[in-house]
Structures are given as C-alpha cells and as structure tokens.
C-alpha cells in the first residue's frame, strides 16, 4: 500500500549569495517566481498528499497570496515560519508533522530554491526511502575535486568515482528523520548543510544516493539565474 507522502518545501532563506533586494525565491524566471516551479512539481505529483511550505518571518500572508492563491495550488496544508538556519526551518516543519502523529509517512524535504525536480525523481526517491528509510537525490560530479588547506594548496584529489553532488529532495521515513533532528537539535550542530547529515550523525541508518538530474540545480548566485531562465522557459512550454 502506498504510504502517505508529505513534502516540506523550504523558502525561508535570505539569499545572501544572490545579493538581490527581492529574496531569490520570489525572483521571477520566465514570468513566474522561482518558488512556484518546485511547488508545482510536488502539487501535481500523484505521490504527494500534503505540502508544508516554510517561509520567512512575516511572509506567510504574502506567500499565501502570491504563490498559493495566485497559482491555485491545492495540496499546501500548512505555511510555517522558518528559522535562522536551514536546519531550524526544517525542524519547525518537522515539529508540525510530529504533532500530527504522522509516524509512518514518507517525508520529502526540498529546497524552494531548487526549481526543477521532476516526477521521476520523486518516484525514485520514494521507492528507495520506503525500502531503506533514508535517501537523497544526487548526481556524480563532472569535475575533478581537490581538497585544499588554508593556503589553498591542494592536499588531496579524491577518486572522482566516489563523489556525488547532493541535491534535494532528501527523503525519509518520518519517524527516522524526526528522531534524527530531535537528537541533533539537542547537540552541537553547526555546519549542518543537509538533512542527510542529521541521519548520518544521529542514527545508525545509512543514507543512500538516488539519481537526481543535472537540471535539478539550486539557484544560488546570479549566474544560476541565466541557466534557470532557460530551464523554466522549456518547462512552461511543456506544461502549456
Ligand atoms: N534559514 C533558512 C535557510 C535556508 N532555507 C532554504 O533552504 C534552501 C537552500 O538554501 P540556500 O540556497 O543556501 O538559500 P539561502 O540560505 O537563501 O542562501 P544564502 O546561503 O546565499 O543566504 C533555500 O530554498 C532556502 O530558502 C530556509 O528555508 N531557511
Ligand atoms: C541541501 C542542499 O541543497 C544540498 O546540496 C544544500 O546543502 C543546501 O544549501 P545550503 O546553501 O548549504 O544552505
């Protein structure tokens, strides 16, 4: 039987590296806000039952009007205020899942600044999370990676065949991710940049990599906007 699927879509970041006045999740690409694109994929997916949107302090009404009502999304059950760091925002959303006692659901955690996931990625990560409890979308790195010291001298060149870039969605059995976050939030947790790290550090459950896509980029710095514009235009053409 299909498990209940809850998506947490994160949009409470500051967009410091983008450096625009309007926070990057609300910048328009091909005529629509960046946040719209990811929400659309989850809202349309037959797998997903519910979406929790996480936004910045004081932005709940703005997001309700400009995203939820403007585009007629139907699965957004809650809009939650985020926190200072990405993990604070995730934890605020997970606490609402814990309160509603969804302990056998599958939780998809996705960056709102990552506009181009697709249905196949949701399906692949769902299957793996049901089987193994924890997985993340990712892709093999295309470049050679060097580890450098504080003088920027290369100290190591890891074997590229062992390296993947990590994306979202990061997908977990609800009990596992809530337990991992609860423990992590009680211990030192600086430099935690993804959800898998909570599971890796706080539980014995391995996290598996599942093929994402090279189109599933995170819009982080201004040059990403140019690439995103091209992908967004082609998505708009397909969904018309
Ligand atoms: N306190 C935070 C920080 C980040 N995010 C979200 O997490 C995702 C990934 O973060 P990133 O791309 O690094 O976004 P920002 O934190 O906004 O960017 P920056 O680090 O440049 O400030 C984004 O969708 C962002 O909105 C969030 O919900 N709450
Ligand atoms: C979770 C993540 O998207 C994986 O690549 C990423 O680590 C989050 O972005 P941040 O810039 O580290 O907050």
From TrEMBL:
<feature type="site" description="Positions MEP for the nucleophilic attack">
    <location>
        <position position="218"/>
    </location>
</feature>
<feature type="site" description="Transition state stabilizer">
    <location>
        <position position="17"/>
    </location>
</feature>
<dbReference type="InterPro" id="IPR050088">
    <property type="entry name" value="IspD/TarI_cytidylyltransf_bact"/>
</dbReference>
<dbReference type="Pfam" id="PF01128">
    <property type="entry name" value="IspD"/>
</dbReference>
<dbReference type="GO" id="GO:0050518">
    <property type="term" value="F:2-C-methyl-D-erythritol 4-phosphate cytidylyltransferase activity"/>
</dbReference>
<feature type="site" description="Transition state stabilizer">
    <location>
        <position position="24"/>
    </location>
</feature>
<comment type="pathway">
    <text>Isoprenoid biosynthesis; isopentenyl diphosphate biosynthesis via DXP pathway; isopentenyl diphosphate from 1-deoxy-D-xylulose 5-phosphate: step 2/6.</text>
</comment>
<dbReference type="InterPro" id="IPR001228">
    <property type="entry name" value="IspD"/>
</dbReference>
<comment type="similarity">
    <text>Belongs to the IspD/TarI cytidylyltransferase family. IspD subfamily.</text>
</comment>
<dbReference type="InterPro" id="IPR034683">
    <property type="entry name" value="IspD/TarI"/>
</dbReference>
<feature type="site" description="Positions MEP for the nucleophilic attack">
    <location>
        <position position="160"/>
    </location>
</feature>
<protein>
    <recommendedName>
        <fullName>2-C-methyl-D-erythritol 4-phosphate cytidylyltransferase</fullName>
        <ecNumber>2.7.7.60</ecNumber>
    </recommendedName>
</protein>
<comment type="function">
    <text>Catalyzes the formation of 4-diphosphocytidyl-2-C-methyl-D-erythritol from CTP and 2-C-methyl-D-erythritol 4-phosphate (MEP).</text>
</comment>
<dbReference type="InterPro" id="IPR029044">
    <property type="entry name" value="Nucleotide-diphossugar_trans"/>
</dbReference>
<keyword id="KW-0808">Transferase</keyword>
<keyword id="KW-0414">Isoprene biosynthesis</keyword>
<keyword id="KW-0548">Nucleotidyltransferase</keyword>
């Amino acid at each position: 039987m299909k498990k209940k699927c809850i998506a947490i879509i994160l949009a409470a970041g500051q967009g410091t590296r983008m450096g625009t006045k309007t926070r990057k999740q609300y910048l328009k690409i091909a005529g629509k806000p960046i946040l719209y694109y990811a929400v659309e994929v989850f809202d349309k997916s037959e797998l997903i039952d519910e979406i929790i949107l996480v936004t910045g302090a004081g932005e709940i009404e703005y997001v309700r009007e400009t995203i939820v009502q403007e585009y007629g999304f139907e699965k957004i059950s809650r809009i939650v205020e985020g926190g200072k760091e990405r993990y604070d925002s995730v934890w605020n959303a997970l606490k609402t899942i814990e309160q509603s006692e969804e302990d056998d659901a599958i939780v998809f955690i996705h960056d709102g600044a990552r506009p181009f996931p697709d249905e196949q990625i949701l399906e692949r990560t769902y299957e793996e999370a049901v089987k193994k409890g924890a997985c993340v979308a990712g892709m093999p790195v295309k470049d050679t990676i060097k580890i450098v010291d504080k003088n920027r001298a290369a100290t190591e060149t890891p074997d590229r065949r062992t390296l993947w870039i990590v994306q979202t969605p990061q997908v977990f059995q609800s009990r596992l991710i809530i337990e991992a976050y609860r423990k992590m939030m009680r211990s030192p947790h600086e430099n935690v940049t993804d959800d898998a790290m909570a599971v890796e550090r706080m539980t014995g459950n391995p996290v598996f990599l599942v093929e994402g896509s090279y189109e599933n980029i995170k819009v982080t710095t201004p040059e990403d906007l140019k690439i995103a514009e091209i992908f967004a235009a082609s998505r708009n053409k397909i969904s018309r």
